[in-house]
Amino acid sequence: MPKINAERLLSDLRRFAQFGAYRTGVHRPTYSTQDMESRRWLAQQYESAGLQAHIDGVGNVFGTPRSKQRSLLIGSHAESQNHAGRLDGALGVIYGLEIARSFAEQPCCAGLPIAPLAWADEEGHYSSLLGSRSFVGDLTEDEIDRAVNVDHGLPLRQALRAAGLHDVPRYLVEPERHVGYLEAHIEQGDALEASGQRIGIVTSIVGTWQYSIVFHGVQNHAGTTRMAIRKDPGLAAARLSTTIADRFPQKAGPRSVWTTGRINLDPGAPNIIPGKAVMLFQFRDAETAVLERLDVLLRELVQEVAIASGCQAEVAQTEIGLPRHMDPAFQEAIEKSAARHAPGAYVRMPSGASHDAQIVGKKLKTAMLFVPSRGGISHHWSEDTSDTDVILGCQVLADAAESILRGDLGIAPGAP
Question: Does the domain spanning 207-320 belong to CATH 3.40.50.700?
């Protein structure tokens, strides 16, 4: 069995966090100077580990084994949310690097090809899950032309040019070259910590369905318009939020969640009854049937509220992310490894957040491993995971990777 180098693993995580360091976390937006420096550093580490390294046309970083055998991809995303944590994405990236190194160094695993990688823009500074969608062929040139940075409006094409990637080809998956894909991640919630578990074996990644809901009313004077004749779209949006809270539990699954992320009123002045309200809303679940039920209910509730408020309503679905179930054999490999290294401290669980694994799963067998997040905090610079859990997670994933590769190559356990 492979033995990871725990000290090197932690050192590399600390080094990676220096790119865009911010308080105890990082600020490393996609294609920023700090992000590209981190990707070039990573490519150097892949080369030092005996791999062929390259950064493709959207910034994905690949470490390709010098072997004709099918390889196992291991990685996550390298960029961060704004002023966020040092482990979100980076944990899985450095796990891939450490496992590739450990396999290359130890005779028991030297013939088992690990292909570490780092995806670009999973966090959606330009377009969510951009790197993995490019890899599986779901990112069109037209989408690249249209995409802009959500914070400052820079077109993606300009960002790629500034990063030196404008004339670099994008790498597309060749399924026959890979056994599958493993991704490790901090949980980004408190389920593991609250239950005293140390390893989560991800069963599925939820689908996210997102909507823009617009209520049109009558803009008028806030002081002279009688309440009885108002058609207030702001009130309609508020009513919809509370109606959803009352009615969604009747159709939701046991792990369904929903969120009103934003309500904008136009013109948004205290002495004007708004003429329009725009509401951004999403729900998530791991089962497509549940998502479909909630979609039907949402549309019914929008119309009910519109009629009751005297407003006109429009519903546009802006995102349809389908759930992705992880490969059963890969899950079993992770679970057996967890049972060996953390007996009684592991659990199978769904992921409530989106990850690149759900995209890669369209083309390859895929699985994920979670380690606990202290306090359930993520997308904030105070995000953290204990060193012991970081080390444990990497060792569990390394053993699972060995098991998966030996099974694919028909090599008996323990054989060189």
Answer: no
Backbone angles phi, psi at 265, to 5 degrees: -105, 140
The first and second tokens of residue 128, run together, are: 């969510």
Contact 330, 396 (CB under 8 A): no
- How many angstroms separate the Cα of 79 from the Cα of each of 35, 130, 140, 161, 380? 6, 12, 21, 18, 14
Q: What is the mean pLDDT of residues 151-164?
A: 97
Find, among 175, 179, 197, the residue nearest to 187 by Cα.
197
Give me 394's structure tokens.
Answer: 């990497």
> Residue 416 pLDDT > 60, yes or no?
no
What's the token pair of residue 38? 């981190």
Can you say whether residue 155 is alpha, beta or left, with left for phi > 0 and alpha for psi between -120 and 50 degrees? beta
User: Where do the structural domains in the chain lie, given as residue ranges?
Assistant: 6-205+323-409, 207-320
Per-residue tokens: 336: 């057996």
CATH code, 6-205+323-409:
3.40.630.10
Query: And the tokens for 79?
Result: 């960029």
Q: Please calculate the CA angle 357-87-34 and round it to the nearest 5 degrees.
A: 100
Cα(127)–Cα(160) distance, integer angstroms:
13
% of the chain at pLDDT higher than 70? 98
By DSSP bridging, strand 312-320 and strand 220-221 are unpaired
Which of these, 320, 330, 261, lies nearest to 285 by C-alpha position? Answer: 320
Give the pLDDT band of residue 379 (cuts 50, 70, 90): very high
Residues 386 and 215: beta-carbon distance below 8 Å: no
Closest to 412 (Cα-Cα) out of 70, 108, 99:
108
Is pLDDT of 365 > 50?
yes
Q: How many CB atoms within 10 Å of residue 161?
A: 13
In this prediction the pTM is 0.91
Specify the pLDDT at position 321.
87
Q: How many CB atoms lie within 10 A of CB 123?
A: 24
Q: What is the mean pLDDT of the chain?
A: 96
Query: What angle, rounded to 10 degrees, do the helices at 387-409 and 90-105 form?
Result: 60
